[in-house]
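Suppose a classmate hands you a notebook page containing two proteins, each written out with its sequence and a corresponding row of structure tokens. How would you begin to make sense of it? This section walks through that situation. The first entry is reproduced here exactly as it would appear on such a page.
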Amino acid sequence: MITGATLLNGTIAGALVLLAGSDSSGTELALRTTARLSFAWFMLAFIASPLQQLRLSRASAWLLSRRRAFGVIFGFSMAIHVGFILRLFVLHAPSRPPMVTDADFFIGIPGLILVALLTITSVDALQRRLSPIAWQRLHTTGIWVVWAIFFLCLIDSVGRKNTEHPVLAYYTFIAVLLAGMGLRLTAAWARRRHK
């Protein structure tokens, strides 16, 4: 599953380069697309556990059984995204790309390091090196931090970037993030109530 999904992500990214070009505008389109693909994989991992708890079904069981795979696919998808970020910097060198702000550095770089750490520790051999409690704390905290980074980046984009379709470009993703947060908080409340 991980290999197939990563090949799909790479194929989409490659098709964008072929169709839209590898100049600045084509690279920016690839950046936006790979960010949205990564978002989708992240959300599948984010909602898997609370959905299974609150609405037990075959679909929720399937999601939960593949939650770690979704997380790894998300990490690999972000690696493709980083490749396009680096490409954009090369195109604009020695200047910084105009779409990149200080906030992107302060939020984005620590976020990418965290995603890499979460992805690496999802590999069985490395997961066994951590105690179950340490692994659980890292991934529970990490998934919320990644959620916050997506949220902050989207809010920043709403205030800074112009688009003809803000609902499709930003507000829909913000709504999905908030719905996912609501699902996780509802599941946490239900667990506490039944203790």
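The notebook's second entry, a different protein, reads as follows.
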Amino acid sequence: MEKRILIVRLSAIGDSILSVPVLCALRKHYPGAKIAWITERASAQLLQGHPALDDLFVISKRTFKSVKELWNLRKRLQDWNPDTTIDLQGLTKSSLLAWLSGAKHRFGFNRDTFDGRELSTFLNNHLYQSDSNHIVDRGIDLLGLLGIQDKTIAFDLPEFESDSNFAKQSLLALGLTGPFAILNVGAGWPSKIWPSPRYADVANHLGHHHGLPSLIVWSGDQERLAAAEVVDKSNSFSKLAPSTSLTQLRSLIRRSRIFIGSDTGPMHLASALGVPTIGMIGPMPLSRVSPYGSHNIGIQRDSLPIQLSSQRKTNCGPMLSIRVEDVTSACDSMLKELYQLHKKLA
């Protein structure tokens, strides 16, 4: 009988990217299985067309506010007929969808600070307590319940020809015909935003000391204003990126020498693409959300005490404690290593 596996990871974009290795591991272990993923629209762009994925269920935030929409979704999931669900979010809404799918085996995390919350430990019926810290490793650990012991990490994110052409044309129009850095000024939470003048100082440092121009990427009107401020204060060492979709941004990131940003979807996208990444981590634990991979650098000076966890989205103290020199020093170290590597390979 054909195995049918449904991954449940609804949001956010960064966490969805960090869950992709679970998809790749499942495909490697079950090459003949049907694998689907249920997600919200924000993350769907980056999952569409993934070679390991057969089907994608895309829902909106209002799905849980409408009995009719939720009932229709239940029917669609049960028609797809999964025998197994993998709940990587660990909330009531994610585990509820796993339960509504009718799957006999519903895998999720035991109760922890960030995982196995709310009613998920009641709705999932196979629970795992991971000793790992990082989201990527915890997801792979969970697959041990299915007998998957291979810890190989793969993302295998696709690239579409239209996005590749967009990236090439955009970079040519901006005069970025050689190596360049990407600086991402935005974030989903106020507590993850680093001030634009500090990004400008980093862009100036990269230009002065490494001859490396910076492309400043953004999403939405507010981030565009912040990005424009960086360009204005960086003495012609940076360029304002055009408006992009997530898949177009993915193609721009692929072509960058290094990526610098806070704990956001684009930062995790860069590390997933194998681009050397410097991630500034504010309120969340560094060990959980640092840019994945030993060649990347996570920066955190102050962390948010567990008793202040309710302030994760609003407390800007940890992010603001990160100094410009913390980031420029990481840039110097990373670029020196890259220069030495390129020299050795030349």
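A careful reader of the second entry would note: The chain has two domains: 4-146, 163-345.
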